[in-house]
Write a structure and sequence with these properties.
The complex is a heterodimer of chains A (150) and B (89). With 150 residues, chain A is mainly β. Chain A contains no helices and 13 strands. The chains are: A mainly beta (150), B alpha+beta (89).
Chain lengths: 150, 89
């Protein structure tokens, strides 16, 4: 099992995806850390709402190569995409995480142990993506990083 | 809230111009949803607790009263998708 990092961004707007990871039939990627922030000067302090959602189709994105933390690791099977021009298909219902935060804030999460990790099923085209639900007072881009094991 | 039982804990940090806010989190053992524990929350305000899994659950899963560990759900889902892929081709 190896650890990989990916980063993505998208101009702030509702229902837009800055970053998505998609597994495959042979791996169960496990999300164990993420970071969310914005890079523009906020227009107001109204919160920007971002959700971590499960996807069943990756949409159209700019490919991002997951970077292994250990340079001796093999390339990841999980694929990643940034700056979605066609939104991924997300599963309806409960998001894995849904939170509004002040656009001046950097929002980081890390799992202490494997049972806290968010797991993607080993099924074709299934993944996890961050989707902006409300732009709030944010400006510029929403930037997202994910760290995952595979 | 005291240190939580189970081993599904995480840590959320919000770093802004007015300071840093830190929260404990846990991941629901039934639906894999991330739950943020509010500051000084009482255990009953943080979520539920499954006595079979001996782990924390989110409010939704606690209300349902059913125990289906997420690992089991994910295995069933993968099996169903594999079957569908075989049928559809």
């Amino acid at each position: 099992m190896s650890y990989y990092n990916v980063s993505g961004f998208i101009a702030v707007a509702a229902t837009k995806t800055p970053l998505i990871i998609t597994g495959g039939t042979t791996v169960r990627p496990r999300l164990c850390a993420f970071c969310l922030s914005t890079d523009g000067t906020p227009t107001t302090d109204q919160g920007v709402e971002v959700a971590l959602r499960r996807s069943t189709a990756a949409g159209t994105t700019t490919a991002v190569t997951p970077s292994p933390a250990d340079s001796a690791s093999v390339a990841s099977i999980t694929t990643a995409g940034s700056n979605a021009t066609v939104e991924p298909t997300y599963t309806a219902g409960n998001a894995g995480f849904d939170r509004a935060f002040n656009p001046r804030v950097t929002h980081q999460w890390v799992a202490y142990d494997p049972r806290a990790e968010i797991i993607v099923p080993a099924t074709a085209a299934n993944g996890l993506g961050f989707q902006i639900l409300g732009a709030g007072g944010a400006a510029g881009n929403v930037r997202a990083d994910m760290g995952f094991y595979e | 809230m005291p240190a939580m039982p189970g081993r599904q804990r995480g840590f959320l940090r919000e770093e802004g111009p007015d300071g840093t806010i830190e929260h404990e989190t846990f991941t629901c053992c039934h639906c894999n949803r991330l739950q943020v524990v509010p500051h000084r929350a009482r255990p009953e305000d943080a979520g539920g607790f499954c006595m079979r899994c001996m782990q924390m659950t989110c409010f939704g899963c606690a209300r349902s009263g059913h125990c289906t560990p997420f690992e089991e759900k994910i295995a069933r889902y993968e099996q169903k998708q594999r079957m569908l892929a075989q049928i559809v081709g």
